[in-house]
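Researcher: I'd like a candidate sequence for this fold, 79 residues long. If you have to choose between options at a position, lean toward the conservative one.
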């Protein structure tokens, strides 16, 4: 059986199918570094946007310093 498989693989190795598979593998191999670089750049953009949105939310969630000061004065006067 192994001899038949080896013979089959030998006949396929020189075929158009094998050449096409090698071309596809080479294309994928070459595209791999470019895809990684694109992913790195795009991930950086997403992280930067997320940090900016988080900072906006924190600013909106905190009471302003003017509001805090006026609340303290009102409390002191009432006491």
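Model: Candidate sequence:
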């Amino acid at each position: 059986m192994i001899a038949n498989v080896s013979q089959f693989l030998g006949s396929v190795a020189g075929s158009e199918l094998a050449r096409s598979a090698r071309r596809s593998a080479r294309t994928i191999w070459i595209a791999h570094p470019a895809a990684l670089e694109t992913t790195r750049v795009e991930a950086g953009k997403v992280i930067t946007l997320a940090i900016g949105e988080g900072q906006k939310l924190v600013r909106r969630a905190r009471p302003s310093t003017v509001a805090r000061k006026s609340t303290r004065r009102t409390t002191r006067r009432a006491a």
